[in-house]
Amino acid sequence: MIIHLKTILKLKEEYSVKKILLCICCILLLAGCVPAAEPPEPEDGRLRIVATIFPAYDFARAAVGEEADVTLLLPPGVESHSYEPTPADILAVQQCDLFIYLGGESDSWVETILTAAEPEGAVLRMVDCVDLLEERHAEGMQLQPGHDHEHEHGEAAEEHGLGAVTGMDEHVWTSPANAAEITLAVGEQLAALDNAKAEIYRTNAKSYAEKLEELDRRFAAFFDAQPSRTIVFGDRFPLLYFADRYQLDYYAAFPGCGTQTEPSAATVAFLTEKVKTEEIPTIWYIEFSNHLVADCIAEATGTQTAMFHTCHNVTRAEMDSGVTYCSLMEKNLEALKQFFA
């Protein structure tokens, strides 16, 4: 198959280099230049599950136990916002028995793969497993230029004032209660794919969901005992579902899907004043952050900083040590007990 230079040049005028390369990979895949025939059945008959982000990977491996193979598509230490899928990734998605992805802005690249190389197995979107919340512009939060989601009725927000809806928040896994629902949904999907092991998948999923529900109760008990439920992040805030679950008041430098790391002077000033007036003891930041904003606010207010792990992805060291969503959230709870009050 020949891909003409004129075609590539025309694509270059309309799309980024990243999108062009992905399109070419998909064209080659579908044209047969990369073998894309019926995938061979696994010798042991095990299901093959592919998940884009760590929470989906963790919920799936909890549900399958030792009965199936689960692959994490997003490499450890990588942000999904900047991830560039490879031809091998496209094949993995196309040939797996179950593909689990978030279904939000941060993995919009998945839609390109699904359009170009339709999976032969089942597909499950995490955002379809729970009730969604509307992402909002919290007071003092700096929005990224051009950061416009679509409203439910398809109208883009022209201005983002205080409390303005900017779309549906995709970070559904950050609430342990939601995580339990997603795990059960994964178990049901696996049961539908492999009737012989259906009860094993359902039992495993239920067992892990019960651990998540217990974790949810422990977070609720902790916050119920606090005189104040205000939390400040000198970072992005992809924790709307967590905050909503435990009725937290929150302030942050950037929205959950923001990619900025340099806040305006007004944003820093607002958060600094908020920390002083409400006597906030800790400025929080998330994993993979340079936490410069949190450090700046902490230095100006004489407070401390601490990390809250959103579980979006993990480092290679964390992966090798066998961390789970539960273990990471338990560490968050211990950090809250140490630094929140």
Attribute tags:
Rossmann fold; four-stranded parallel beta sheet; 43% helix; 341 residues
Write the layout of secondary structure elements.
Layout: H1 5-14, H2 17-31, E1 47-51, H3 54-64, E2 68-72, H4 87-95, E3 98-101, H5 109-116, E4 122-125, E5 134-136, E6 165-168, H6 176-193, H7 198-224, E7 230-237, H8 240-245, E8 249-255, H9 265-277, E9 282-286, H10 292-301, E10 304-308, H11 316-321, H12 325-339
Parallel strand pairs: 1-2, 1-3, 3-4, 7-8, 7-9, 9-10
Antiparallel strand pairs: 5-6
Helix pairs in contact: 3-6, 3-7, 6-7, 7-12, 9-10
Short overview:
The chain is 43% helix and 15% strand. The chain is an alpha/beta fold and 341 residues long.
Could you characterize what this model shows?
- This protein is of the alpha/beta class and 341 residues long.
- It has three domains: 36 residues; 134 residues, Nitrogenase molybdenum iron protein domain (Rossmann fold); 120 residues, Rossmann fold (3-Layer(aba) Sandwich), CATH 3.40.50.1980.
- The chain is built from twelve helices and ten strands.
- The strands form three sheets. It has a four-stranded parallel beta sheet with strand order 2-1-3-4, with helices on both faces. It has a four-stranded parallel beta sheet with strand order 8-7-9-10, with helices on both faces.
- Helix 3 crosses helix 6, helix 3 crosses helix 7 and helix 7 runs parallel beside helix 12.
- The N and C termini lie far apart (64 Å).
